[in-house]
Amino acid sequence: MSKLLRVLIVEDSEDDAELLAIELERGGYEIHCERVETELDMHTALDKKVSWDIVLADYALPNFSAIAALDILKNYQLDLPFIIVSGKIGEDTAIAAMKAGAHDYLLKGKLARLVPAVERELREAIVRQEHRQAQERLEYLAYYDDLTTLPNRTLFLESLGKQISQNKLLHKEGYSFAVLLLNIDRFRVIKYSLGHSLSEQLLIAAAKRIKKCLTQQDILARINADEFAIILADITKEKEVEARAEEIYNQFLTPFELQETIVFSTVSMGIVLSSIGYEQPEKLLQAADTAMHYAKFDALKNLVFFHEVMHTLAVERLQLESDLQQAINYKRLHLNYQPIVSLYTGMVDSFEALVRWEHHSLGSIDPENFISLSEETGLIIPLGKWVLREACQQLNNWKQCSFRYLPLSISVNISGIQLSHPKLLGQIDEILQSLQLEGKYLKLEITESNLMENSVTITKVLEKLKEREIKLCIDDFGTGYSSLSYLRYLPIDTVKIDRSFIVKNKNDPNYDIVKAIVNLAHSLGLDVIAEGIETELQLNILRELGCEYGQGYLFASPLDSQATFKLMKSGLRIC
Ligand code: C2E
Ligand code: MG
Ligand code: MG
Asked: What's the CATH code, domain 153-306?
């Protein structure tokens, strides 16, 4: 089958043009050609929007020339293969033609060269086109986010720079624009539990929802995996920014439906107004980022405006993050062990491992102050792995000392992010195998709120843990507002009642709640641990209610490993 070739022939002689066409047909092409001999003809031919494959041009025509034709092609931004076919051509003219953009030249008397030259030029045109496309793609990727097709961080900062200069030129004072940084809450958890493809779809859908709230002048960019930045242009009042930001926030109140999966995702937003007077775009974005972190940590606020005092605090936080990284790398963490006591026998039944960080200058930092930081930065994964190994290693040490009262078990706290991490099961297997420890000696404590976050995926992981005989405990029970009946759907062994529910006396309004939790747990065959027992009175009430285990300062605070050994030697009786 012959190949269609669309040829534009720049030639004043009809006969010469005919000869070219015949030669090409002989070479196996089906020719669609048009002859042009003036500038006007050339424009008309190009305006027809035929996608021409090649141009064959005489060097000089009475009212036109190959060089002029090349100029026109340039104006049309067309890079077509261009071969000069001339009666005679000198070296100088050939060089001039090639410089002007012609790809080859040949003499009318030697048309046998035409077909091979056309074939070669067509091949080279394809190579040039591929190269151009790769170049365009690189340029696109330098400025745009491929997934959402939104501008990326670089383009956003450029636009922000322009906005700042424009503001200065117009001597605008007051709130002429605002920068918003929007972060999708718990994106890491969503990504691990829903998988790559659904989390990408969530980002595309989120971008669409945000766009709905923006005007033509506003700019939306995706600047990080889970972060969008917005310039709200033409703002006159702080209240106006707040209303616009709330409108964006409200877009996330409706859950996303992605491939029949319902995903609920809130956002945290930091806002900075141009009136702050920062002249570097990076500084403005950084300020919005700082405010966004405040929104993230304030359970009551989702939108926070930047104030300069926040800056100092942000620097301290950054320092803490890098210190924590070092502490994990150089093992400057240690575990304390708090006894969990049988309320009937007074004997220690197990220990809960609680991580401690001895900071080189700040002293001891409570886990409540660095676990959330580690969850936010992803450091919880190496930290959690270290805790698991260290706790299991400790249990092994106890076993090797063959205290009479063993076997004990050890409880380790697991964050929701760890639970959603695809490598968790592999890591646990590796730790248990390397220490030759059976799964039944390990208990994982998972807070109630983490279990509620993504019940389907998490339940699957819990079932896998149960297959390994690992015990599961729902921690801080009562704080997550889950209904009691929800317990029956989880493959757990133990309920640990949060210390805020531990009743001070019999008239305490929490008395009935604790009673209901204990009864329901027992009817489902689960053990109950009460945490935070500090007084004899509390202990007695819990005994009366039938709660079998307890933990708290009344028995012992979390102990370092030496103190734990001592306790074991003395027989593990606490009360
Ligand atoms: P949690 O798992 O509920 O641990 C119990 C917390 O209550 C511990 O605080 C413990 O020291 C404290 N406590 C024990 N008895 C009493 C008492 O009688 N009265 C009072 N008021 N408090 C008592 P800690 O060690 O500061 O840990 C706080 C939280 O940090 C833990 O709560 C747990 O959620 C988290 N955490 C600790 N270690 C780890 C860890 O290795 N990994 C993870 N993911 N989280 C951890
Ligand atoms: Mg715990
Ligand atoms: Mg707890």
From this structure: 3.30.70.270
